[in-house]
Amino acid sequence: MATAEENRQVDPESRDGLQVLSRAASALDEIATAPGQLRLVDIGAQLGLAKSTARRLLVGLVDVGFAAVDSAGRYRLGDRLLGLSSADGAHLAAAVRPVIEAVADATGETVDVSVLRGDQMWFVDQIESTHRLRAVSAIGGRFPLLGTANGKAALAALDDAELDAVLARQSSDMARRLRDQISPVRAGGLAFDRDEHTAGISAAGIAGRLPGGHVVAVSVPAPTDRFTLREEVIVEALRAAAAAAVWESAAR
């Protein structure tokens, strides 16, 4: 006789519920990747959903406050979800704060903390440089994985199965480019962005896991001329950050 647990595993309603949750999570990932840019038809196409199915899904997300839609029909993350994310971000930022304070003291440059979320890096904390000419990113902003020090470092901190899952969501060309950028990071322990994401700005970064599994990157961006002159100091400070006790294991 089948047990209650076995019955639950084959229950069609349970499977349907899991499918809805999976679709909702995928829709939120798409919205977070391009906030305020995607319409219902765009999200439906990217998820491979019929227009009616996508509409029901997005109406539900808007109703519970996880998504919001403007008068032009473009979606962004909702205030309720952002409130939950902000609380999570504040917790992660607090855990890493002593680490970035040490890096800022050692380098005199801006130090950023970002978290891997879906296919982007989400900025949760920053200590600004006191230099008049400095690199600054908005807290709550999102950066791509490709061509950024924090994105490369975070991907390099994933295990092979996790990395394959991220790359599977990319185009074949993007997956190849990301994999090519990760190899030297795993070999050397640090990731670099030399005028790749923003002309005139270079950066270095490390990443590791916090207790709970979050992949968090610490990066130091600076005007390229000054970064080049002080690269050795920046690298030394980041290597010390990678060895800090806050991580579950040392950053690669």
TrEMBL record:
Domain IclR-ED: 80-252
Alphabetized UniProt keyword annotations: DNA-binding, Transcription, Transcription regulation
One record GO biological process: negative regulation of DNA-templated transcription
Domain of life: Bacteria
Annotated InterPro entries: GAF-like_dom_sf, HTH_MetabolicPath_Reg, Tscrpt_reg_IclR_C, Tscrpt_reg_IclR_N, WH-like_DNA-bd_sf, WH_DNA-bd_sf
GO molecular function: DNA binding; DNA-binding transcription factor activity
SMART domains tied to this protein: HTH_ICLR
Record carries keyword tRNA processing: no
Domain called HTH iclR-type: residue spans: 18-79
Matching PANTHER family: HELIX-TURN-HELIX TRANSCRIPTIONAL REGULATOR, ICLR FAMILY, HTH-TYPE TRANSCRIPTIONAL REGULATOR RV1719
Record-given protein name: Transcriptional regulator
Species in which this protein is naturally found: Mycolicibacterium poriferae
